[in-house]
């Protein structure tokens, strides 16, 4: 059986079938998945009970793992539950127990419930992220994806012209501040220094323009902060209308792969007394290309 990719009903995402990704895959399948990503930007693989090693092996078919020295979190390496190369998006501590709801690491994780693009707070934001569902709570915990290409296309010409050359500042400080988590140490604040990215970016393969929004974006160069925050909030509201959103309902064994250069996503609530064990591998991207598409 060969790989096939079908659009999911009523959504921009695609569903992949005919492939066992727990085993090594061939160049033709890698190319088919890349092509599917360029169309759908989000692909769902069902019934893939991956180990961490298998997830990493599948991921590196599509690029190099992110490997930063600078922090993307507030947890030290020796406090991690999982090995290198795989990020822990569970509600478990390093001993495998459900984290206290008062734990500042948990506060930090709650920021992922805001719409964002992975690593937009880094000079070279992420290419693909791959999230593997290992243990799924009985209620909630969907991951939602918004298509930033369609959101850009749907803007009126005046707005497209206004945003064409805008530059945003992204930092973990902004996204955590948005949920009231401001209790960061001086060292954390220094480590989360803002980076600048264009608000409209061009996809390096498809050439499509998209809105590069993220909860990490908290300023627009040359604008006052209140004006910038309101405008970014307005754009985010536009970009996350239901018509642009796919909501993934997890089953254990699902792997969802998304292109951070064309989408935003957010985690949804679940019952914190239940375990959610989801694990992410992330591919390094390049600094965003500035969109040069004509303004209609
Ligand atoms: Fe994320």
Mean pLDDT: 94
**Order of the strands making up the biggest sheet:** 1-2-3-13-5-15-4
Q: Compounds present?
A: fe (ii) ion
Number of strands: 16
Q: Report how far the terminal alpha carbons are from each other.
A: 44 Å
Radius of gyration: 18 Å
Helical proportion, percent range: 10-25%
- Tell me, what's the shape? globular
User: How does the helix and strand content classify structurally?
Assistant: alpha+beta
Fold blueprint:
Layout: E1 4-7, E2 14-17, H1 27-40, E3 42-45, H2 52-59, E4 87-88, H3 104-110, E5 126-135, E6 143-147, H4 148-153, H5 157-163, E7 167-170, H6 172-178, H7 186-191, E8 195-198, E9 200-202, E10 209-211, E11 217-220, H8 225-239, E12 245-248, E13 255-259, E14 263-267, E15 277-284, E16 289-290
Parallel strand pairs: 2-3
Antiparallel strand pairs: 1-2, 3-13, 4-15, 5-13, 5-15, 6-12, 6-14, 7-8, 7-11, 9-10, 9-16
The chain binds fe (ii) ion.
Residues 112, 116, 118, 265 line the site of fe (ii) ion.
């Amino acid at each position: 059986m060969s790989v096939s990719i079908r659009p999911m009903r009523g959504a921009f995402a695609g569903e992949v079938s005919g492939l066992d990704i727990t085993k090594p895959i061939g160049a033709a399948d890698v190319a088919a998945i890349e092509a599917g990503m360029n169309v759908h930007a989000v692909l769902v693989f069902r019934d893939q009970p991956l180990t961490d090693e298998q997830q990493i092996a599948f991921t590196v078919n599509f690029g190099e793992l992110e490997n930063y020295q600078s922090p993307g979190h507030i947890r030290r390496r020796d406090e991690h539950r999982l090995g290198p190369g795989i990020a822990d998006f569970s509600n478990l501590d390093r001993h495998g127990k459900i984290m206290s709801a008062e734990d500042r690491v948990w506060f930090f994780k709650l920021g992922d419930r805001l719409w964002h693009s992975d690593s937009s707070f880094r000079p070279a934001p992420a290419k693909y992220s791959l999230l593997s569902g290992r243990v799924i709570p009985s209620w909630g915990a969907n991951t939602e994806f918004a298509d930033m290409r369609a959101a850009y296309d749907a803007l009126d010409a005046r707005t497209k012209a206004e945003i064409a050359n805008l530059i945003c500042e992204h930092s973990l400080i902004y996204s955590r501040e948005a949920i009231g988590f401001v209790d960061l140490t001086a060292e954390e604040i220094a480590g989360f220094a803002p980076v600048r990215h264009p608000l409209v970016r061009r996809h390096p393969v498809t050439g499509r323009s998209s809105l590069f929004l993220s909860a990490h974006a908290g300023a627009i160069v040359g604008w006052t902060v209140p004006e910038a925050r309101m405008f970014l909030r307005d754009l985010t509201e536009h970009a996350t209308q239901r018509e642009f959103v796919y909501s993934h309902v997890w089953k254990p064994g699902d792997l969802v792969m998304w292109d951070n250069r064309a989408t935003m996503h957010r985690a949804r609530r679940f019952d914190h007394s239940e375990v959610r064990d989801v694990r992410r591998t992330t591919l390094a991207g390049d600094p965003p290309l500035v969109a040069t598409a004509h303004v209609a």
